[in-house]
């Protein structure tokens, strides 16, 4: 990933916005990537609404695509557990949302939580935005918090290069965005996927989870592609109202230390010339995450920054994420609600 320097500071929605050259998680968009940092203090109140954190205006032609990545780091004013969302939204100039949004969600476990930096919870979120028509679009990173049993708290956004919006500076022609099937917050959608029940232990997201597999065609002459995925899961402990599809008898009790262990792996499959069989398989190293019931929701970020295109294979790819429940209460794979909670992107390099 390349970063462009931009000395121009823009004042948007009452805060300073600067494009800077700062190291970030390794990705490899086609062309440069601009990063816009939150540079002034901001508190996200307990109101259950999206609060704008960083915004960028984009002038795009019809069909032009941009990869957006946001990072929201926050500290809570309470030691209690509260909801925290990071969401990417693009609006038209009238303020109307255009297309789908993408969200990463996790409970913030309090100002004394034992994260890498005590009390500091970072969330990343990725989205592919494709302009439906030529025009100016306002794309932003938003934060949200809420809880049912407290009113006098807020989340303080961490600055100093810890909270930002990244935008690919060039069109990402031919890029594709995968989203998981619909799955309501309560989990009563028929298309919800549960793992760790008596019926099912594993699945391939975007492949056999109720999704229709998408065969994505790389651009002519491309020698490499990039793939990434954000997968959100929710633990289904006894008493939670997030998992209507799991009987109480199959759930475990929530305790101060209860958790579920889940394994994740992303597969990028280049198909043969007929588009029917695997010709080349590229995978991430499997990662096992321990998801506490206190956190309740958890997002796993998977990335293959540069996958070679094998000229002896066909020109189509499949993207899928293997998810396996290992221990603890069952889990729900979160999908599309009013926003998309499980997403994948492939781009030509």
TrEMBL record:
UniProt KW keywords: Signal
Residues spanning the signal sequence: 1-28
Name of protein: Ig-like domain-containing protein
Organism, as annotated: Actinoplanes regularis
């Amino acid at each position: 990933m390349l970063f462009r320097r931009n000395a121009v500071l823009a004042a948007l929605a009452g805060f300073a916005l600067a494009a800077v050259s700062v190291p970030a998680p390794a990705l490899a968009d086609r062309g440069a990537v601009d990063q816009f940092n939150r540079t002034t203090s901001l508190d996200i109140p307990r109101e259950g609404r999206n609060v704008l954190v960083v915004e960028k205006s984009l002038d795009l032609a019809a069909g032009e695509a941009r990869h957006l990545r946001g990072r929201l780091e926050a500290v809570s004013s309470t030691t209690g557990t509260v909801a925290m969302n990071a969401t990417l939204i693009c609006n038209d100039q009238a303020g109307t949302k255009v297309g789908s949004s993408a969200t990463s969600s996790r409970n913030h476990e309090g100002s004394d939580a034992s994260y890498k930096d005590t009390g500091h919870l970072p969330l990343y979120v990725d989205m592919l935005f494709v302009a439906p028509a030529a025009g100016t679009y306002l794309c932003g990173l938003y934060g949200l918090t809420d809880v049912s049993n407290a009113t006098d708290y807020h989340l303080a956004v961490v600055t100093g290069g810890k909270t930002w919006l990244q935008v690919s500076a060039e069109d990402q022609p031919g890029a594709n965005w995968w989203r998981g099937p619909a799955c309501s917050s309560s989990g009563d959608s028929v298309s919800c996927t549960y793992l760790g029940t008596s019926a099912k232990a594993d699945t391939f997201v975007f492949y056999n989870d109720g999704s229709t597999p998408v065969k994505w065609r790389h651009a002519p002459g491309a020698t490499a592609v990039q793939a990434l995925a954000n997968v959100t899961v929710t633990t289904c402990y006894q008493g939670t109202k997030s998992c209507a599809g799991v009987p109480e008898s199959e759930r475990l009790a929530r305790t101060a230390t209860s958790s579920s262990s889940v394994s994740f792996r992303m597969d990028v499959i280049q198909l043969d010339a007929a588009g029917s069989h695997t010709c080349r398989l590229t995978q991430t190293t499997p990662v096992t995450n321990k998801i506490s019931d206190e956190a309740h929701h958890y997002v796993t970020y998977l990335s293959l920054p540069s996958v070679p295109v094998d000229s002896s294979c066909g020109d189509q790819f499949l993207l899928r994420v293997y998810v396996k429940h290992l221990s603890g209460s069952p889990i729900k794979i979160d999908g599309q609600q009013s926003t998309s909670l499980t997403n994948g992107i492939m781009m030509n390099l």
